[in-house]
């Protein structure tokens, strides 16, 4: 796509064109071959169809959500919710954040029901969990809300730290372990970098050397990275460092980090004029040395293809249908795990495509074309379970791992 179209897709301003909900931020399949028993409601937006779902997964479909048992992959509950909905882990073992036209809604996935907890606002965007805190960024207002996700268990809206960016934009924020708040800088037309506020809200660092800033990831030793159109911006030890791409335009817009690795996994695109670039290289940024390495996969992937394993291994779901397992320190593909059939990334980012969600030692991969969902054991490299779901699903997420 041309540069203007690329920015529109990423900022989320085009989302209202096709759906009744207005969402932003930068999916999958659901059901059960051995017995999909999705209880459904015709009138209410949610139904408590199952109690105490174990390690729940949540998959969206056109008009609702499936809540699945994380082990059996059986559908434990189905919730009707019109519109294009997005899902992210809330940060505890029970809840998932659902981005809707009303704002961020809290789903009690373990109980199989939507709660009454809402963080209202136009164009709910990124949800970021870090250091035991969850940060919500509402693109339409620039409002940031940060809370302890375990407070959701009280059944009421938790008290939250709030801050509003000077201008609304498709942004992202993360609270650091020391109480600092990192947030992107920009407006609806242009995004330029990031700033950091101390625990009292005073600005202590800023860098606007990050055109098109998008996405974030956390690495070992407290490093935070945000993506740029020419590399990444790393915040560590109180200062920003720019890691520059080898190409004048080398966009890293989506990243995946691990607390066990100093290396950030990112996508990598170098054609600013492509209608939809289908890259075959991924980026590895070492936050200790400020160096960037590109890894050729021999297959393309999408923004829903990136993940990290329990030992920090970098995971990429390729359009060849395999899960590529990369050693982030060596920059080499260690193995390829066949999971789904070959696929191609659709032109519209809202359209369903195979999606990766990783929790502990299991990688969950959706296959929308077959209404399928697969579970892969990352230790053995084997597919341990596959089911067929009632609907072809789009987004895939789940609760956070238990501790």
Mean pLDDT: 89
Taking pLDDT < 50 over at least 5 consecutive residues as the criterion, the unreliable ranges are 1-25, 27-50
- Strand order across the biggest sheet? 3-2-1-32
The main β sheet shows up as: 4 strands, antiparallel
- Give the overall silhouette: globular
Helix residue percentage: under 10%
Q: How much strand?
A: 35-45%
Query: Pairing-aware structural class of the strands and helices?
Result: mainly beta
Q: Gyration radius, to the nearest Å?
A: 19 Å
Terminus-to-terminus distance: 43 Å
What's the number of helices?
Answer: 1
Secondary structure: number of strands: 32
Give a structural overview.
The chain is mainly beta. Helix content is 2%, strand content 43%. The chain contains one helix and 32 strands. It has one helix at 3-11; strands at 57-61, 64-68, 75-80, 86-89, 95-100, 103-108, 113-120, 124-130, 133-138, 143-147, 161-164, 173-175, 181-186, 191-197, 203-207, 214-218, 224-228, 231-236, 239-244, 255-256, 263-266, 281-286, 291-296, 306-308, 314-317, 322-327, 332-338, 356-359, 362-367, 372-377, 382-388, 393-398. The strands form eight sheets. It has a four-stranded antiparallel sheet with strand order 3-2-1-32, with no helix packed on it. The chain has a four-stranded antiparallel sheet with strand order 4-5-6-7, with no helix packed on it. Strands 8-9-10-11 form a four-stranded antiparallel sheet, with no helix packed on it. The chain starts with a helix and ends in a 5-residue tail after the last strand. 55% of the residues are buried. The model is unreliable at 1-25 and 27-50 (pLDDT under 50).
